[in-house]
Every structure is written in C-alpha cells, then in structure tokens.
Amino acid sequence: MKHSLTIALLLAAPLLILTTHSCRAASRQSAAPADTTIVAPHDHHLSLLFAGDLMQHGPQIKAALQSDGSYNYDECFARIRPEVERADVAIANFEVTLGGKPYTGYPQFRAPDEYLQAVVDAGFDVLLTANNHCVDSHRAGLERTILMMDSLHVPHLGTYVDQQSRDLTYPFLLERNGLRIALLNFTYGTNGLPVEHPNIVNLIDTLQLRADIAKARQMQPDAIIALPHWGIEYQQLPSAEQRSLAQWLIDNGVDHVIGGHPHVAQPLELSADSCHLIAWSMGNVISNQSRANTYGGYFVRLDITRRDTLTTTLTEGRQHADTLVTKGRARLADCAYTLYWVSRPSDSGNRHNYRILPIDEPDSVLTGLEQKNRYAIRSSMRRLMDRHAKGVREYPFK
Asked: Which residues in 342-373 are b (16+ Cβ under 10 Å) and which e?
C-alpha cells in the first residue's frame, strides 16, 4: 500500500552506482596515489496523516446492514481514500470496540468486524485505541478488539491485554523511509467503566507519561508525537487543562501533540520556531452526531525530513571505498490541514450511506439539504480557523 522501503532504496541507489562506476574507471587507468572524497546529501522524507474519531452509532450500523446479514461500509470512506492513501502513514482514533454481537451504538459501542476492515481498506495504517469508549464491552471486548486488529496485521497502541504486551510494544516505534517516530497515546478516562485485570489502558498520568517519554527517547527517534484523548466535548476552543498538559508534554521532550475527543474541530497552533505543532482536536471522522459542528473535522498532515551526509572516501588506488554516514537532525518541513464533513443518508434522500466528503465538494453532486448542512459546518470551521489557527495552512483534497 505504501512502499516506503522501496523508496528508501531507490534514493540510495544513485550514490551506490556512482561509487561503483568510479572504482571501475580507476582500475582501467593507472592507480591514482591520492585519495578521493565524495560528499553527498541523502534526504529522508515521511508524510504522516492524522485523523480524529472513528465512531459507530446505531443508525450507522443499521445503514451498513446488507440483505445477507453482513455489513458494508465501502461508500463511507470511498471519497477520502485517495487522500488517506497519499500519506506514507495514516493514523486515526478507533473509538469503538469489536466485542461481537449484539452490535450497539451509544452509550456503549460494539461495532461489526466489517467496520475495522473498511477502515483498513480506506488506507489507515495505525489505529489508536486509548479513548473513553475502549472498555465499552468490558474485558472481552477490549481483548477481542486487539485480537481483530492483530488478525489483520494492523498496528495499534493505547490498550493492552496485559503489562507484558505493553512493555514489549510501547511506546510505539514507527519506522518508515529511514525515519523513526515514537508515538504515545493516552486517554483522560473510560466513562467510569473499570479496566479489568490484567488489561491496561493508557491514562493521563504524568508520572507514567514521564517514564514513557524517557523510554521513547531511548529509542533515538527523529520525533516523539503524543496523541491524547482529552478536552471538553463540543467545545471549539481548548480547555485550560489541555493547554497545561500540552505545554508539559513539550517541556518534557514531546515534539508534536495531536489530540481528539471533543467531537468538534478545535484549532491548530504551530510554535514560533516551527518546531512544535499542537492540534487540539480534529473532530469526528464519521459519526451520527448532529449537534452543531459534530459532523465535520479535519485531517492533519505532517511532513518530516532529515538530511544525512554521506562521505565516501576512495582509497588504495581507488580499489576500495569507505562510506561514513553523518546523521542530520529531523525537522518539520511542512504541516497543513484539510477540512471534510459527513453527509448522512437522510441528507441525500437515502440515496447513499454515510459519506465523508471534502469540504468543497461541488454543489452539483449534492442535494439541497446536503448543500445547506455543508455550508453550515464549512462556515463554522473556517471561521474558527481564521480566528484561532496559528501558523498552519489549509490545503484542498487532491
């Protein structure tokens, strides 16, 4: 799906070919007494896409039900799939459990297994599971959710069967295109439902977070990204608690903070030195919520680069080459967001399932009610961003 290893090898190939050719040329000529040093840059690049809350309310489950008893969500994600797949790695919050039948929506979510498959088919590569609904179907549901993700080879972080599995896989280390990114995911709580032994849910606990950040640093990543489930539902501006925790995370070594949970979009802020991005809340990716501002959100795209220096010295009459790699410092090359909204079956006259659509989808393909609802959410989110987003640009769907 995303051929990062191939890309990395191709980038390295020209330098290897140049070195080999130089050695062969020297062997046909008289041996040169002087060593030759070739210094060349080698760039690594990684594009990350982050998405908010993947919900499954009762009407969504009903809309996906097929005549044979299976569930189909293809139409939900069809329009955004190219945008998601364009990133090297796409990460989203999976805010339901896969506890098996009976399937239920709010307040305790149990989604069909087909929903996970649709999320994977849409291009999402890594799923976050530490959220306030992760124990909705209790220990059996938490463990079955992990089992289903493992069966599809979907990397995930935030909830664990036991301490041993957490110790082995957390912090989560993402390695792509020659770059190493450490991910941290944690939640403010679990709606009052207990986390049953020996299961573990990552919670907002600064003592544990400090230890997790220290462990992440030992992995020598190019960046550490925290993905908290936090904030106050339906509030479009971050709370004092969010701001305090974000600053604490950055002071303790986190590079970027990408949050979720309020079910509405909250703005983004890029630090003055362009080193730290905070996205307070990305909103829902898809849901049946109809309260103001809940049926839209944004994707965050981060482009991280690192320039290494390759110093190749040809010695022994150019018969032997030694190459030294000097690792550079990773930097945030670009960051941007793109807006989307969700059309429900009732908006389209029941011609379609729930659909995630670009915020500027042409009016010609929308019903009158869809145009009205899209206008409301677009106006609200752009007004929010114009007033409060700092240093981050909006980009259109490709």
From this structure: bbbbebbeeebbbbbbbbebeeeebeeebeeb
